[in-house]
Design brief:
The chain is an alpha+beta fold and about 350 residues long. About 50% of the residues lie in helices and about 15% in strands. Keywords: ATP-binding, Ligase, Nucleotide-binding.
Length: about 350
């Protein structure tokens, strides 16, 4: 069974007003004194963010329990200094991001200017174990068309600087400001993949391999494929679903590689269109079908994803849970839908944030 780990980035906010708070250093200092949180929390580019990493898990119930626990521990440590956490991929309220101190982050701010000064977005990254770099690159080549569906399911960023963007995942649009971000071509081999990464680092436009912000990449630190397209999800159960579907995609792609099936050779241009469509409307309207690259209702495209990875999900015992979770999202709406409903009900973006704080820790 392939193991799965999740990285989530959480927004630090004032519990009464919902305003983002630049207090990550203080929260991390609190967590560092807690033996139970050793290695769990990390600093990020902005002082308004707190990241946690789960352990690799083979059982999705165990992964879900750890995500819930990490969110509650984050809230507990944040509460000790007068703030709390919200699983929001962008801040609904206006914010002036504060860049974390350090030579790496200073280099990024000098290199990319206003893009860094404005880009406070929060994502969910999923690591799935692979047996080798060759298998990993074969997986990267075969999951490319399906990642837009993962993005749509996770959509949780409709607001930006106090305004409705008309996008369900505006985070993914802001993320494209990075020069190395987005979909990739078919690599064909680990040698080609590593050569491309070396050329990109050698250009001097990015600092190092850690700034390879492909939609999916080989991890530098672990024997995993790292999928990076998801918004941080409002509910822990949605994050678990994203991890479940991602493992299913990785396993299915590896089996296709073993069986000699070539990847779909969609152009990067088409993949960008699919990603834009997923960001624009999430599950509310249409998506591009990953095989045909033509519009279909989101329900049909999610169904195609479940059919595509159904064998892998069945073998891991996750098929029925994944179907039920997808149905709940299609019927009840993504995090973006929940945020807009909160605004309709309260007419106050501060109430949107405080409402999402409650969803984060549910």
């Amino acid at each position: 069974m392939r193991t799965v780990g999740v990285e989530e980035e959480l927004l630090l906010v004032a519990p009464e007003t919902g305003e983002p708070k630049a207090l990550s250093a203080a929260v991390l200092a609190r967590a560092a004194r807690d033996d139970a949180c050793e290695g769990v929390f990390e600093k990020e580019l902005y002082n308004q963010m707190l990241e946690f990493n789960t352990h690799p898990q083979a059982d999705m119930a165990d992964l879900n329990a750890e995500i819930v626990r990490c969110r509650r521990e984050a809230a507990r440590h944040a509460g000790e200094i007068g703030c709390t956490v919200a699983a929001l991929a962008t801040s609904p309220l206006p914010v002036s991001p504060s860049v974390t101190r350090g030579s790496r982050y200073q280099w990024m701010e000098e290199q990319y200017g206003i893009a860094v000064q404005q880009q406070l977005v929060l994502g969910c990254h999923v690591h799935v174990s692979v047996g080798s770099d060759e298998e990993g690159v074969a997986v990267l080549d075969r999951i490319r068309p399906w990642l837009s569906v993962i993005s749509a399911l996770s959509a949780n960023s409709p607001f930006w600087q106090g305004r409705d963007t008309c996008y369900d995942s505006y985070r993914s649009r802001v993320w494209q400001r990075w020069p190395s971000a987005g979909p990739t071509e078919v690599f064909g081999s680990a040698e080609h993949y590593h050569g491309r990464v070396a050329d990109m680092v050698g250009s001097g436009v990015i600092l190092d391999e850690g700034m390879i912000y492909f939609d999916a990449r080989l991890s530098r630190q672990y024997p995993t494929v790292e999928v990076r397209v998801a918004d941080v999800c409002l509910h822990a159960g949605t994050a678990t679903l994203i991890a479940t579907l991602t493992r299913g995609l990785v396993e299915t792609a590896a089996r296709e590689w073993w069986d000699g099936h070539p990847p779909l050779d969609h152009s990067v241009s088409l993949l960008r269109l699919a990603a834009w469509q997923a960001a624009r409307s999430g599950l509310a309207q249409e998506l591009l079908h990953p095989e045909t690259m033509r519009r279909l209702p989101a329900e049909n495209v999610v169904g195609a994803l479940l059919e595509h990875i159904g064998g892998a999900l069945a073998d891991s015992g996750d098929l029925e849970q994944a179907r039920a979770a997808c149905a709940r999202l299609l019927n009840g709406g993504t995090g973006a839908h929940v945020q807009r409903e909160l605004l309709t009900r309260t007419r106050n973006l501060r109430e949107v944030v405080t409402g999402c704080v409650r969803h984060t820790q549910a």
